[in-house]
Design goal:
The complex is a heterodimer of chains A (316) and B (316).
Chain A (H helix, E strand, L loop, with lengths): L4 E10 L2 E11 L4 E5 L6 H8 L9 E4 L2 E2 L11 E4 L11 H11 L4 H14 L15 H13 L5 E5 L7 H16 L12 E5 L3 H4 L4 E6 L2 E6 L1 H6 L4 E7 L2 H12 L5 E3 L2 E6 L4 H11 L4 E6 L3 H8 L7
Parallel strand pairs in A: 3-8, 3-9, 6-7, 7-8
Antiparallel strand pairs in A: 1-2, 1-4, 4-5, 9-10, 11-13, 11-14, 12-13
Chain B lengths: L3 E12 L2 E12 L3 E5 L6 H8 L7 E6 L2 E2 L4 H7 E4 L11 H11 L4 H15 L14 H12 L6 E5 L7 H16 L3 E5 L3 H4 L4 E6 L2 E6 L1 H7 L5 E5 L7 H9 L4 E7 L2 E6 L5 H10 L6 E4 L4 H8 L9
Parallel strand pairs in B: 3-8, 3-9, 6-7, 7-8
Antiparallel strand pairs in B: 1-2, 1-4, 4-5, 9-10, 11-13, 11-14, 12-13
The chains are: A alpha/beta (316), B alpha/beta (316).
Chain lengths: 316, 316
């Protein structure tokens, strides 16, 4: 399928600091493209250039066939953009916020009435339309934000870390909505092409729910593919060690497996190793150290992909 | 003095008719890492603010570092560190200036300043970059510097309110290494997080829902207590069906209690003991041939989903 939005060789520098080096990506209608990467990788910059709220310093940027560099105004009604600090009017009600964003885009009356009702029902906010935005929980605010950026029916939604600080239940609900949106916005004409979503996230379980994921690091796309493709690229094996002496086991595992980033989650440790005999070697080393532990080889997760690809944060 | 760094008995805070914190009773042993979990709007931040003397309880009592939160707030403020969700350093000051500013605010004795400054710099990994503008640092560095500044005065109790929201996986691991280091030196750490893998690192996790403390226990024990042998993890290849379609099919099965997405996989909590074969067979009848179906033990995230199992988005 043809892409509905693309960036091609996009560059950007903040003074002497290059944020993006020749980044090229595209997204199709009905697709969720995830952007993940360490802090400072350039994720927010990329979204700002694509929307565009900032002017690119080189490369091509398009949404819905319109040129974001030559004619940024032409993208106005084609994109819906939710930055990290999306401004809802806290002292306005849910309904008033939606109305405000519809006015900004000059949404026709009959479209507004239909979309408003459908989107409220869809996000299960329909019972709260009179409540002030300032009184909503984190998850509800994010859902209201979605309605506000969807009310003009954009071709592409750009969401910059929309679920930061949102609890595990509300995050799931938010993603259920995103997944349903790309399958068809309720109240839409089914012949219309489906919305595409470009979303950045620090949550690796959310990255697994994207159709494709781009891993951005130091302003470059280090990997791009479906979550399955990316997981298959993790070099070596992933070990999971369960022990009540995790703190002591950690050093032994790091040394034996050759992984400086052994992760510790209470009684569970996770390490990568390119040794062919990794499982046995780690099990033996722990036993020799007098540490009682279970060692298993487990399938890699997106977090393993992320950690294997990102170098430790470089000093600025 | 008791062996508890933080104590609360029937701690309650009302805002008008709304009860944000409702009769919370808890004990945090000295030198432990105490995880405070719950959905957005459950009352976590309000509870922390009461402990830090920033909010008065409506009723109930509390002690921090042995001092009464209602009458000895000043004594408490000298003995605690607090890092809020909002980034608290001055972006337009250098690293050095931020450290000096917070050392003054926290009344760090002159004689201790050099040592504390060095400690904060090494914690953040900024030894060579003390002259940098703080706003120019990548997120992970800022986060660690904020932590370093919060402990300049060597507090007895450290309150961290979602310190890792939006931080990438490697940054979160590094941050938790620092928390371990501080706890290892005898500091009590009271931390809220929406990352359940982080919560596994706590000696005790407490769940708050609608202002009420509904559970507090060792996370490993909590997971064991929820292990009823009725949890399966499964995945159907994306080429066959979307996870949403698989979840919908499973939800229609009367043997199934709850289906929750975990990345691209699904966790199925059954109403009775289900063998993987039974579940596979059911999926096959729907032409949804799974990659795998395996019985698993609940993770803390599974426990969280069960505890918060309500119509969350529709909560008043």
């Amino acid at each position: 399928m043809a892409s509905v939005a693309r960036v091609d060789g996009v560059r950007y520098a903040y003074g002497a600091v290059t944020a993006l080096h020749e980044v090229s990506l595209d997204v199709e209608p009905g697709e969720i493209l995830g952007i993940v990467g360490p802090d400072g990788a350039g994720k927010s910059t990329l979204l700002r250039l694509w929307v565009p709220v900032m002017r690119s310093q080189g490369g091509r940027i398009e949404v819905g066939g319109c040129d974001a560099v030559a004619d940024p105004e032409s993208l106005r009604d084609l994109v819906g953009y939710m930055p990290q600090r999306f401004s809802l009017y806290e002292d306005l009600s849910i309904d008033e916020n939606i109305h405000f964003y519809a006015e900004l885009h000059g949404v026709a009356r009959e479209d507004f009435v239909r979309r408003r009702a459908e989107l409220l029902r869809f996000t299960r906010l329909d019972r709260f339309t009179d409540r002030r935005a300032g009184q909503l929980s984190g998850g509800m605010k994010q859902k209201l934000g979605l309605i506000c950026v969807l009310i003009h029916r954009p071709a592409v939604l750009f969401l910059d870390e929309p679920t930061n600080g949102v609890d595990p239940v509300s995050r799931r609900e938010f993603w259920e909505i995103l997944r349903a949106l790309v399958a068809g916005i309720p109240g839409d004409d089914p012949s219309e092409s489906r919305v595409a979503i470009v979303v950045s996230t620090p949550y690796m379980d959310e990255a697994e729910r994207c159709h494709r994921v781009a891993i951005l690091d130091h302003g470059r796309v280090r990997a791009l593919g479906t979550p399955d493709d990316l997981r298959a690229k993790v070099p070596g094996v992933v070990l999971e060690v369960t022990t009540s002496e995790a703190a002591r086991a950690r050093g032994v595992i790091a040394e034996t497996a050759g992984d400086p980033h052994v992760a510790l989650f209470g009684t569970r440790l996770r390490a990568r190793s390119t040794r062919a005999d990794a499982r046995n070697a780690v099990a033996n080393a722990l036993r020799d150290g007098g540490i009682d532990a279970e060692v298993a080889v487990v399938p890699p997760s997106m977090e393993d992909v992320f950690v294997s690809l990102s170098r430790a944060e470089a000093a600025p | 003095m008791s062996g508890f760094a933080v104590e609360a008995d029937g701690l309650t805070r009302r805002f008008g008719k709304f009860t944000a914190v409702d009769g919370v009773t808890l004990r945090v042993p000295k030198g432990s890492i105490y995880g405070f979990l719950g959905p957005n709007g459950a009352g976590k931040t309000t509870t922390i603010k009461m402990f830090c003397g920033l909010e008065r309880p409506t009723s109930g009592t509390g002690k921090v570092a042995g001092y009464d939160i209602a009458t000895q707030a000043t004594k408490i403020k000298e003995r605690i560190g607090y890092m809020s969700q909002a980034f608290s350093l001055y972006a337009d000051l250098t690293v050095e200036q931020n450290i000096r500013f917070f050392a003054d605010v926290y009344l760090v004795p002159r004689a201790r300043l050099a040592e504390r400054r060095a400690f904060a710099l090494s914690m953040a990994g900024l030894e060579k970059l003390a002259g940098r503008l703080t706003g120019e640092l990548p997120g992970g560095f800022k986060q660690r510097l904020a932590l370093g500044c919060a402990v300049l005065h060597e507090p007895e109790v450290l309150f961290l309110d979602e310190p890792t929201a939006g931080v990438d996986p490697l940054g979160r691991r590094q941050f938790w290494d620092l928390i371990y280091t501080l706890a290892g030196k005898g500091m009590t750490v009271f931390v809220t997080t929406h990352y359940m893998d982080e919560a596994e690192n706590c000696a005790v996790v407490a769940f708050l829902r609608d202002g009420k403390l509904i559970a507090a226990d060792d996370p490993a024990k909590m997971r064991r207590d929820h292990d009823d042998g009725r949890l399966l993890r499964l995945q159907v290849p994306a080429a066959i069906a979307t996870p949403e379609a698989v979840a919908a099919a499973l939800s229609s099965w009367d043997a199934v209690e709850r289906v929750s997405p975990f990345g691209a996989a699904l966790h199925v909590h059954a109403k009775r003991r289900l063998t993987p074969e039974e579940a596979s067979e059911f999926l096959r009848t729907k032409n949804l041939v799974p990659d795998y179906v395996q019985p698993i033990r609940p993770s803390l995230e599974d426990v969280f989903l069960r505890m918060v199992d309500t119509e969350h988005g529709a909560k008043p």
